[in-house]
């Protein structure tokens, strides 16, 4: 079972230092009690050990790009703790298919076999869902329990304490997070969501976010992302 004790969250030193105040707040302790109970009584995703995977694969100090999702995939064996990402060998969900198609069109990179985006995270891309857990087959079931308070704090802390982060906001939900970001310090890339509903209406394809992101990184003298 996922343990609410702060030490068992087991984040890297940079994230632990930045987020300790959040972990000590009453809402977070209430949230962890809720998550403990949900994981004990229901099937929930991702695996308890992967709830904070986005932070474990992308250190605070190395964060160069932030992509914001809504909540985890709620089907079996899909969610791995990184937004839009699935485990190796799992069929790509529709939004991820459209992401890979846009990368192929935008950068010329061949459509990948694996939908596991840990390879992005290790290059400094924080793949952050606004809600980090979900009950199986019940989209949005863990929303408004406290996760949004926590992940909004993460965005605000990054905006305040790191320079020149590229925030990539897809769809109406993610775009609302722009108010948490200092646009004078950071770059924002906004477009429609990669879901079929949005993409088929012309709000996703040809946004060129992946090449645009790398151009910004290159202009800053930073290493580009291998998408």
TrEMBL record:
Q: Where is the Uracil-DNA glycosylase-like domain?
A: 56-217
- What is one term from the GO cellular component aspect held by the record? cytoplasm
Supply one GO molecular-function term: uracil DNA N-glycosylase activity
Pfam family for this entry, one: UDG
**Enzyme Commission number:** 3.2.2.27
Q: What is this protein called?
A: Uracil-DNA glycosylase
GO annotation terms (biological process) = base-excision repair, AP site formation via deaminated base removal
Naturally occurring in which organism (per UniProt): Maribacter stanieri
Name the residues annotated as catalytic in the UniProt entry. 71
- Does the UniProt entry include the keyword DNA repair? yes
| Principal place of residence | cytoplasm
Subcellular location per the Swiss-Prot or TrEMBL entry = Cytoplasm
Catalyzed reactions: Hydrolyzes single-stranded DNA or mismatched double-stranded DNA and polynucleotides, releasing free uracil
Q: Which family does it belong to?
A: Belongs to the uracil-DNA glycosylase (UDG) superfamily. UNG family.
User: Which NCBIfam families has this protein been placed in?
Assistant: PRK05254.1-1, PRK05254.1-2, PRK05254.1-4, PRK05254.1-5, ung
Q: What does this protein do?
A: Excises uracil residues from the DNA which can arise as a result of misincorporation of dUMP residues by DNA polymerase or due to deamination of cytosine.
Q: In the UniProt record, does the keyword Transferase occur?
A: no
């Amino acid at each position: 079972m996922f343990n609410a004790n702060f030490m068992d969250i087991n984040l890297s030193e940079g994230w632990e230092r930045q987020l300790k105040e959040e972990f000590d707040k009453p809402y977070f302790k209430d949230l962890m009690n809720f998550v403990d109970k949900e994981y004990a009584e229901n099937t929930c995703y991702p695996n308890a050990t992967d709830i904070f995977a986005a932070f474990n694969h992308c250190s605070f100090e190395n964060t160069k790009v932030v992509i914001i999702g809504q909540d985890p995939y709620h089907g079996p064996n899909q969610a791995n703790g990184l937004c839009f990402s699935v485990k190796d060998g799992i069929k790509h969900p529709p939004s991820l298919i459209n992401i890979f198609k846009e990368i192929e069109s935008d950068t010329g990179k061949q459509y990948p076999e694996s939908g596991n985006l840990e390879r992005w995270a290790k290059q400094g891309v924080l793949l952050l869902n606004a809600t980090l857990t979900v009950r199986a087959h019940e989209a949005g079931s863990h929303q408004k329990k406290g996760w949004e308070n926590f992940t909004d704090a993460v965005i605000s802390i990054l905006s305040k304490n790191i320079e020149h982060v590229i925030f990539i906001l897809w769809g109406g939900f993610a775009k609302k997070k722009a108010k948490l970001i200092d646009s004078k310090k950071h770059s924002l890339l906004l477009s429609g969501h990669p879901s079929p509903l949005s993409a088929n209406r012309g709000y996703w394809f040809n946004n060129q976010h992946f090449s645009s992101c790398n151009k910004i990184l290159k202009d800053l003298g930073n290493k580009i992302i291998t998408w």
